[in-house]
Design goal:
- The chain has helices spanning 81-93, 151-165, 192-203; strands at residues 8-16, 20-25, 30-34, 50-55, 65-72, 75-78, 104-111, 114-122, 125-134, 136-137, 142-145, 169-176, 183-186, 207-215, 220-225.
- With 230 residues, it is of the alpha+beta class.
- It folds into two domains: 8-78, OB fold (Dihydrolipoamide Acetyltransferase, E2P) (Beta Barrel); 81-225, Trna Endonuclease, Chain: A, domain 1 (3-Layer(aba) Sandwich), CATH 3.40.1350.60.
- Helix 2 (151-165) packs parallel to helix 3 (192-203).
- The protein is globular, with a radius of gyration of 18 Å.
- The two termini are 30 Å apart.
Length: 230
């Protein structure tokens, strides 16, 4: 998926109130940017990290700048959670994810009392997919999710399990934005209940897929699968 262009270089001063970040630009001025990420952004929202901003021309916008990418450990990290599903959707529609080729793709599909990110259909076969954006590691080369306690995330896992009970395939898809990641595991040290729930639903038929994204200042696309450590 192509990113907005042109992007503006800056240095993160601070992130606060969840949706705001102060960024120092190359000329020394400081601007406030919208941060489309409700998570803790642990390891990413660190003062002094290089960032890239986009600027909207819409005069009605309260904040013209949006935080797009953050440089962490020599890699660009896409913390823009609103883009995550579009990156995965593009890969699904183009048949670039092995095992999910040849399906019709629908997004934001109601399932019971919830919505799941995607439903893939091929003939009578349905595959439900919920996508999670991963920006955390264990401090090394293992990506982790979540970066904060998430009751909503556990509910999504149980929704996927309900889909399995109805005879469908169901997949939790972790899009890993950390370029140094070589494997994925649940962040038990942050939300042990999520880890327990993930292992439980996997044991009962929910599939897990973790793919590392390829992030550059020009694009974000789904890359290789990562081994799972469950």
């Amino acid at each position: 998926m192509r990113l907005p262009s042109p992007l503006i270089e800056g240095t993160l001063v601070r992130r606060y109130k969840r949706f705001l970040a102060d960024v120092e630009l190359a000329d020394g001025s400081v601007v406030t940017a919208h941060t489309p990420n409700t998570g803790s952004m642990m390891q990413c929202a660190v003062p002094g990290h290089a960032v890239l901003l986009s600027r909207a021309d819409n005069p009605a916008r309260k904040l013209p700048f949006t935080l797009e990418l953050i440089r962490v450990n020599g890699h660009w990290v896409d913390t823009h959670t609103h883009r995550t599903n579009r990156v995965v959707e593009e890969a699904l529609c183009e048949g670039r994810i092995a095992g999910f080729e040849g399906y019709d793709v629908a997004s934001e599909v109601r399932f019971g009392e919830s919505r799941l990110d995607f439903m893939l259909r091929r003939g009578d076969e349905c595959v439900f997919i919920e996508v999670k954006n991963v920006t955390l590691t264990d401090g090394g080369e293992v990506a982790c999710f979540p970066d904060a306690v998430t009751e909503r995330g556990r509910r999504h896992l149980n929704d996927l399990l309900a889909a399995v009970h109805q005879g469908h395939r169901a997949v939790i898809f972790f899009l890993v934005q950390r370029g140094e990641a070589r494997a994925f595991r649940p962040a038990d040290h942050i939300d042990p209940a999520y880890g327990r729930t993930l292992r439980d639903v996997v044991a009962r038929g929910v599939e897990v897929l973790a793919c590392r994204s390829i992030v550059t200042p020009e694009e974000n696309r789904v890359g290789e699968r990562l081994p799972l450590v469950l």
